[in-house]
Every structure is written in C-alpha cells, then in structure tokens.
Amino acid sequence: MKALSKYFVIVILLLNLRVIAQDINEVDSVQYNNYLQLISDQSRLIKLNPSNSLAFSKRAFYRQKVNDYKGSFADYSKAIELSPQEPANYYYRGMLLFEAEQYEKGITDLTKTIALSPQLPETFLDRAVAYTCVKKYDKALADMNVFIKIKKADVRGYYNRGDIYEKLKQPAKALKDYEKAITLDSAFHQAYSRIAGIYLNSLKDFQKAIDNYTHAINLNPASFHNYFGRANAYSQMKEFQKAVLDFEKTLVLFPNFEFALFNLAKTYFELKNYAKAIENYSDYIALKPEDSNAYFGRANAYEMLGKKEEAQKDQAAALVKKRK
Hints:
This protein is mainly alpha-helical. The chain has helices at residues 2-16, 29-48, 53-65, 69-82, 87-99, 103-116, 121-133, 137-150, 155-167, 171-184, 189-201, 206-219, 224-236, 240-253, 258-270, 274-287, 292-304, 308-323. The chain has 2 domains: 2-239, Tetratricopeptide repeat domain (Serine Threonine Protein Phosphatase 5, Tetratricopeptide repeat, Alpha Horseshoe); 256-324, Tetratricopeptide repeat domain (Serine Threonine Protein Phosphatase 5, Tetratricopeptide repeat). The longest helix is centred in the first third of the chain and has 20 residues, at 29-48.
C-alpha cells in the first residue's frame, strides 16, 4: 500500500500548502482580461522607471494569476534585486518555488523572509510544511511550535503538527494535536479522518477508527478516502457486508480507484461471492496488469467455482509477473 500512502501524503500537502494563487482556476474570463490589463499597466510603469521594484512585485502577482509562473518568478527575482530588504518578495517567490516542488529553494526564500520580518507567524507555518516535504521533521516541528505559540487558537498549527508527529511515529502526540484541532473547530473533518487513520493503522482499535471515519463522513460525505478507510476498518472486524458497501461508495466517488477494487475483490471472496470477486479482480488487473497478487486472488476465486482451467492460467500468469 505504499502508493496509497504516497497519494494521501500528496493530498495532505496540497491541503496544507498556502499559495498566493490558490484560486487561480476560478479566475473567469472577465477577471483574466482584467489581470492582463493590470500586467500591461505595470509594464508601462516599469518602462518609465526600470528601478520600480513595486511595479515588478505587482506584475509578478498578476502574472501568477494568469498562470505565467515563469514570468512571475522572474519579476519577483527582479524586485528582490532592486529591493533586497523587502520580505514580501522573498515570501511570494518562495511560495512559487513550493508550487514547483522546489522545496529547498523555497525554504531558503522563507528563511530570508523570517530574517527580515520575524514577527509574521504564517511564514513559520509555510516553512514547516516545506520542511515536512523534504522530511526534515525536527525543523518542521520547531517552526510549527513557533506558529502555535503565536496563534494558539489556529487549528492549522495543531493539525499540521499532528501530521509531523505521525511522520515521527509518535501517534499519541499526533492524536492529542488532532483532538485539540477538533476542540477549536468541531466541523474540522480532516482531523477526524487523521484520528481514524491512527486508530486503524497504528493502534489497531478498529471500532474507534470506524467511529471517527463516520464523524468525518457526516461532516464531508463527498470525500472518498473516508469511506475507503472505514471499509478497511470494517474488514478488520470481519463485518464484510458493511465493508462492501463502503468500498462500493468509494468507487462511486472515485471510479477506478485500484486499491478499492482490489480490496473489494478480497472482501467478496470472504463473503464467498466468487463471481463478484472475479469481476473486481479483473477490473483491477485492467488497471494494474503487473500485480501478481491479483492473479493469485482471481485464480483462487476461479478454483472455488470449479473453473480449473482459468485458475491454472491465472496461477501461471501470477508466477510470471512475480519473477519480473
């Protein structure tokens, strides 16, 4: 399940990273044209005064709004060259670098921002997330502690620190922070989801995992991974029929999610519904044709139905895939 873990890490990082152009995809045609005009206005100012650092900063911002990241980066860099003591330009260029997954370079810019303006808590939050991206968890924790000290009532600090504690394999501390986030915001469904994941994967308390996934689902019924997590918890408790319903709901929300297909096939096998197991293994194999485990699983289902020829073909295919 390493690929699944990586997927969730990506999702979490996208939720945590605050980028200046986070609404870029929502810019309509009128706004887009307005930004083009604003870019043109700043370009005229720059032509009149090539040392106008503020004009470069503004044009950088507007260029990012129209997806011109290369131009935006160049303008922030020029603004920094002209006004090297202005912290905002380092900050926004750092966020651009994070968006491009150049985390170390982005950290350098945020470190400069902090040196010039150490009183801004958001910079510590963003640098902590960046440190998490490059697995420098001790530095991430130090920055998040600074953010929490300044903004004690901000759920983001506790939620992100909980994520860091999870990565440091300290589930008790992570639970405490996620629970603190919920006391600050009872509708914070992401925290319920993370608590559920700890109970499912680390503490093996499957009923508490189900309870917390259910809280998360009630608050955000459109999130597929809560149904997927709860389905796995139900499977661990051998409540296979409930697991089937949640795996199927996962696939409604995220069609062709391969891990849900694979686990649904296994669950149908447990329920002795071998035809449905074969169907879902086949759908999974269409997406992941090199996974030998799926061929072994389907072979077992064929065997239970007395289809020996099909079972032998899948067993042979599984052995070939396994050798690769």
